[in-house]
């Protein structure tokens, strides 16, 4: 995975956030976390080949599809990370839990390309469905994530219910 800063991507992410009144019922933070070459390098240094191997294996186990070889992680100054059409955009403030955040946003990116929304969440907004679905990261990335993926508070009960469904349908007993 390649880590980069791109001012255009950063600005687009800020515009997406500023266009909202809230995020899943929570007040939007407007903090800015400056991105320097040193910050980008710190992200790159933490993403070892061992972590990348476990990450790629987990993505394949979840989606039965490989993440693109040219996948890019954009480091942004927003307090919020997100999936974007070009890859994923990770907040510079996430350095302490960057692996969990990368797994979370990469899951969103791959979810958009999968049939899981139709299969598991046919009548739900895709943004909500993506947030519920990331609970599976706690199975497939538990050995590399710094902390569990708890997701947004709004979805906690739905995530637990979905995890049970996923485990019964997808994990070999």
UniProtKB/TrEMBL annotation:
Name recorded for this polypeptide: DUF2268 domain-containing protein
Species assigned in the record: Candidatus Komeilibacteria bacterium RIFOXYC1_FULL_37_11
